[in-house]
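Issue: ligand-bound run for nicotinamide-adenine-dinucleotide - logging full I/O for the record.

Environment: standard queue, default settings, no custom constraints.

Inputs:
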Amino acid sequence: MAILIDGKDVAAKVRAELREEVETMAKERKKRPALAVILVGEDPASQIYVRNKQRACEDVGILSEIYTLGENVSQESLEYIINSLAERRDIDGILLQMPLPKGLDPVKALKCIPPEKDVDAFHPDNVGHIMRGDYRFLPCTPAGVMELLRRYDIDISGKECVVIGRSDIVGKPMAMMLLHSGGTVTICHSKTRNLAEHTRRADILVSAVGKAGFVTADMVKDGAVVIDVGINRNADGKICGDVDFAAVEPKASYITPVPGGVGPMTVAMLMKNTVKAAEISQKTY
Ligand code: NAD
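Outputs:
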């Protein structure tokens, strides 16, 4: 039987710690961190994510401003709004909710966010820092995975780490973070041949694919730590991860459930980045 990694519990602890930090900042410096979130269009999933982020801010004591733009907004208008938020001294973090509607250039828009306010860590400047390991911010989902490993005392140094998925927001930064912690890292993706041969070597297996039931028991080594980043719906419409949990759990030493594993950590790490952005802005101004 594997130990269940309780992301809800860890996320609540991270938020409680941040709440204390924020209250100290409010008392001592008469300032609360402030996050601006820009939502373009009416994608229902994005609307839910933005609402969750707003609620998390309220919970931690962070100020938030939500900008909702129509899906036909021009690139120029979007960039104008980001640039005006970039200039505001009272705004510490800026988050542009992805994906953007077709016709808008996400890379151009993200480049308008000053790196020191880029709490998602998607700006090329911050991506470069992650490569070098001297980062200000880490992307929230892989940072959440690292926090879970740390809080469960799971050592990474010298371990075989296999990441399935090579996206810019999860797979690639996840691999870099495991590498910086001393892991021997393999990145698998849609073109990887003999996937199970790679995954069976993993002491720590991270799946970020987006397919229900993708990681089966025969792909997992006995005693492996299994981290499921995927968020999918199964045939009954219920939220599930990439991992066939019932079959894999008996083989694993540690495993994250979905829901209640990596998911709650993502928003908690966004809060952490926003508090850090406020600390950076205190030093700058
Ligand atoms: P993505 O679609 O950008 O990337 C998926 C990756 O899976 C790709 O790199 C692709 O190469 C790989 N892949 C696809 N088919 C494969 C196959 N047959 N074999 C091996 N690799 C294969 O997705 P993403 O944005 O990285 O997200 C991945 C999953 O994580 C999704 O389910 C998403 O909803 C979830 N997610 C969860 C959180 C969270 O907070 N828990 C945050 C971000 C993403």
